[in-house]
Amino acid sequence: MVDDRIELLKGTLDMLILKAVAMQPMHGYAIALRLGQLSRDFFQLQQGTLYPALHRLEDRGLLRSKWYESETGREAKFYALTRKGRRHLEAEMYNWQRMIKAVALVLRAAD
Amino acid sequence: MVDDRIELLKGTLDMLILKAVAMQPMHGYAIALRLGQLSRDFFQLQQGTLYPALHRLEDRGLLRSKWYESETGREAKFYALTRKGRRHLEAEMYNWQRMIKAVALVLRAAD
DNA sequence: TCCAATGCCTAGAATATCTACTCATTGAAA
DNA sequence: TTTCAATGAGTAGATATTCTAGGCATTGGA
User: Fold this and answer.
1) Contacts of B3 in chain A (CB under 8 A)
2) Which of A48, A78, B32, B99 has its CA 20 to 30 A from that of B24?
3) Domains of chain B
4) Which of A40, A98, A106 sits opposite B105 (nearest CB)?
5) From the CA of B41, how many Å to the C1' of D24?
6) Running DSSP on this structure, what letter comes out for residue A27?
7) What is the rounded distance in angstroms from the CA atom of residue A85 to the CA atom of residue A23?
8) How much is the pLDDT for B6?
9) Does the C-beta of A10 come within 7 A of strand C?
């Protein structure tokens, strides 16, 4: 039995969501579509991944939500970054860059 | 209360361990030191992280272990890559590159 | 004699993520 | 007119990863 499961998110989900919302306030469904487009379909968020993450981020005070009418005329819950969320996003992006550099150092090692 | 905890590994632990061992068979303690050196101390593996991971990788047939005398003259459990482990490492590295490219696409997005 | 370094290990908790659902509305195609 | 895809939000439960916080034993040097 082969383990073909590809680990996609690697703990970047929060950062990706925050980044999407930083571009402009969006509802959950739109966030999933957006991250799909931007990543050329690499990220295809499942709802069971997305919504709990949104709630988590709101509970932590990084996002704030409000119901508005969506583009299609239906009610949808729009998320926006809080100031804390913006700071957090910046910190996450910084750490992400440090992290992938550290990984690159290891992977490139010859010895 | 600020959440300062930095998530370091992001699911790359297995890949990092396999890469270290791919360079040359090593015992656990040496793997931790090695990954520390190579990453300029970014990765500082705790033993409670390292040893369960090694056992996991061995259970999955990606590593094989044997007791030998270490550099210091003590007994230590040396791990080596299996063929399956080598294939797995290559796949993980490939997926990792795809993944960080996808993240980069999102993070660089302007809109 | 005592401590730091070397070396291996486990238990338990917290988190993140995935699978697999539920529920409701709308619009268009058959 | 029924039916299906798309839009939109959600939960429950399982699994895997990682961390904290310990334990144990040996060695060499201060």
Assistant:
1) 60
2) B99
3) 13-108 (1.10.10.10)
4) A40
5) 27
6) E
7) 13
8) 42
9) yes
Share above pLDDT 90 across residues of chain B, in percent, rounded to a whole number: 88
Protein contacts on strand C: list nucleotides below 7 Å from a Cβ.
6-12, 16-22, 25-27
Q: Helices (DSSP H) in chain B: which residue ranges?
A: 13-23, 28-38, 47-59, 83-108
Scan for tokens 């959950």, then name that residue: A28
Quick check: A6 pLDDT over 50?
Answer: no
Round and report the angstrom distance from CA (A91) to C1' (C10): 34
User: B2 pLDDT exceeds 50?
Assistant: no
Q: If you measure CA to CA, which chain B residue comes closest to A41? A: B102
Write the pLDDT tens digit of every residue in B66-88.
999 999 999 999 999 999 999 99
pLDDT band for A8, please (50, 70, 90 cuts): low
